[in-house]
Specification:
By secondary structure, this protein is of the alpha/beta class. It contains 8 helices and 14 strands.
Length: 327
């Protein structure tokens, strides 16, 4: 077992990377050692802020870092495949932001490469590692709410309109479905597995990306999922699991929530809280560290097969609404 601190690198020091780096500093067995940007000055500023000794002015240079155990990729969606492959080909483990890549073909290549080279790879679906998610699964698996009949989840915020901004720029993989719709789809997959049918509709904006998408999923056992995402309005951002004996409600904003409430059929309620002083990225960081220290090439909580299933669901929803990208 590896006992030394895990040495992290970051590709693309944007907004999410800052939050990730701040949480990384709170994980005892972690150290940020390198950051790569297309702008060397930006990389140096980020490295100085978080105490990283190496800064690079191109993404490609990070694989030359002499002290690196794993790279966190936070580039725009369209870069995930290329930047992951860059690291994997160099034998460097990867934690890549969601969506893992732009489509099933890209994710399949990433997975096949990681498995062939026996290099760790994981999609950074941080919600999977949140205490609220783990508690929800524990309640469901213990039979506390009986058979799960359905799930519901929404994710919406009013995004400032800028056609060049990542959220609306089709060339950067923009659109509500890939950016935030992945969370509700993840929620339905986690609780119900793969559906027998997906029905979806989207509202398109002037840049050609979906600004809102709604999905209804049906399953072989008769259960259902109602899911939606939007850049046009601030929604409640709540998630629910409906069971025969009660309902689990994840408090807003559910994908990063610090609490849940169970309402039982007999009128009883119970609330579970999981307060934290961080953004919440430390849970996936700790999961990656454990995998690397125990020489695991995949996470058991969020495996590469899970990511393949999820990208397939995203592709199916895209096909339903006719959303296409050039990659």
């Amino acid at each position: 077992m590896i006992t030394k601190p895990i040495r992290w690198g970051i590709i693309a020091p944007g907004r999410i990377a800052h939050k990730f780096a701040q949480d990384l500093l709170q994980v005892a067995d972690s150290q940020l050692v390198a950051v790569a940007s297309r702008d060397l000055a930006r990389a140096r500023a980020f490295a100085q802020e978080y105490g990283a000794p190496y800064a690079y002015g191109s993404y490609e240079e990070i694989v030359t870092c002499p002290a690196l155990d794993v790279v966190y990729i936070a580039s725009p969606h369209v870069g995930h495949h290329a930047h992951t492959m860059l690291c994997l080909q160099a034998g460097i483990p990867v934690l890549c932001e969601k969506p893992f890549a732009m489509d099933t073909a890209q994710v399949t290549e990433m997975v096949q490469t990681a498995r062939a080279k026996q290099v760790f790879l994981m999609e950074a679906l941080w919600t999977r590692f949140m205490p609220t998610t783990l508690k929800t699964l524990d309640l469901v698996q213990s039979g506390a709410i009986g058979k799960v009949l359905g799930v519901k989840a929404d994710f919406g915020f009013k995004a400032p309109y800028d056609p060049e901004r990542r959220t609306f720029n089709k060339d950067l993989g923009g659109g509500a479905l890939l950016d935030i719709g992945i969370y509700p789809l993840f929620w339905s997959y986690l609780l119900l597995g793969k559906p027998t049918q997906i029905a979806a509709q989207a509202v398109y904006g002037p840049t050609g990306v979906d600004e809102a998408t709604g999905m209804t999923l049906t399953y072989a056992d008769g259960s259902f999922a109602f899911l939606d995402c939007t850049f046009l309005a601030k929604t409640r951002c709540e998630a629910f699991v409906y069971g025969e004996k009660g309902t689990i409600g994840i408090h807003s904003r559910w994908h990063e929530s610090q609490g849940l409430t169970v309402e039982y059929e007999d009128g009883r309620t119970e609330t579970h809280t999981f307060e934290r002083p961080t953004w919440g990225y430390q849970y996936e960081i700790e999961a990656v560290n454990t995998c690397l220290k125990t020489h695991q090439t995949e996470s058991t909580l969020w495996s590469l097969d899970h990511s393949l299933d999820l990208i397939h669901l995203l592709d199916s929803a895209r096909a339903e609404v006719g959303l296409r990208y050039s990659v």
